[in-house]
Amino acid sequence: MAPDIVGNCIGCKPLGGKPVPPAPPGFNRYRMPASQYNLFVEKIYFILGCTACGKGAVGREIARRLGGAVLSVDSMKVYRRMDIGTAKPGVEARAAVPHYGIDVVEPSEAYSVAQYVEYAEAAIKTIRADGCVPLAVGGTSLYIKAMTEGLFEGPSADSDLRAEFTRRIEANGLAALHAELVEVDPAAAERIHPNDEKRIVRALEVFRKTGNTISSLQTQWAVEANAGPFVRIGLRRDRDEQNRRINARVKKMVDMGLRDEVAALLAEPDGLSKQAAQAVGYAEVIEYLRGDCPFEKAVERVKINTRRLAKKQRTWQRRWTDVIWFDLAADDTVEAVADRIMKEITFE
User: Fold this and answer.
1) Nearest to 332 by CA among 323, 341, 324
2) What is the rounded distance in angstroms from the CA atom of residue 342 to the CA atom of residue 334?
3) Distance between CA atoms of 70 and 126, rounded to whole angstroms?
4) CA atoms within a 13 Å half-sphere pointing along the CA-CB vector of 290
5) Is 236 inside any structural domain?
6) How does pLDDT run across 168-224, given as a tens digit for each residue?
């Protein structure tokens, strides 16, 4: 039996005491493609798009009109007290519309895709039991993929191998490991950024442990679009407008006290997990607080890395041929966008 999933969301019922039902004997739902297992029996609606495109506000407006609830699909909003840098909706917004998937774990904890999928399944059942329409809103593409297509989960982590990789990074830099990945798995090296230590190490670890490239193993889990009872609604903007919104969001975060938020998190007894500390907006400010760069340079890096994140999200989202796209203009209001979506999409 899967463990109880506990949420601490404002404006919604906790999930404690509602464990995820077990899969049939010998059946691992998280390693099966969606063609063989659908996570959700009833329809779920995804609202996706690049970071800072406005999907959160639109999702909340649609949920308000439908009497629905929002399930955050964001790998960093799950962390408590990481509020400003993750652009969490405020207290009033969460009080007006039930939210799930926010403030789930401590920032000192690691949180896996499989844990999120378990949480999401329990949340969807709770939302449906309350007579609400579930709207999964967010831009963490791996979470969306896992929820709709199944989850590739390779060999378990190897502490000896990872210690070896860490020593090599310290001696020769991360570029040397990325160069090795180019040799053994060029497809993975092309899509993994040279500075993405976590994914580079994982790809090399899988190759060393299995003799197969991670890109070839992940391909085995590729499925056709529309394999499950879900609807993917996409919001997109002109690239220049998207970048303008990103810059404006970063400025707002700084004005709201991002520097103090990160400092307070680092001062906590358990600190930040490696996963949380690598989040865009936090990693750069941590560099500043450690004296590695001026604050102005750290802020500029946040803008640059957020734009890179948006580019990665666009790449992921282009793979899904079933997305129903809505192109947004700079002067579109949240209400107008919600009107357009609700005229085209039948929510049930």
Assistant:
1) 341
2) 12
3) 12
4) 9
5) yes
6) 999 999 999 999 999 999 988 888 888 889 889 999 998 998 888 887 776 544 433
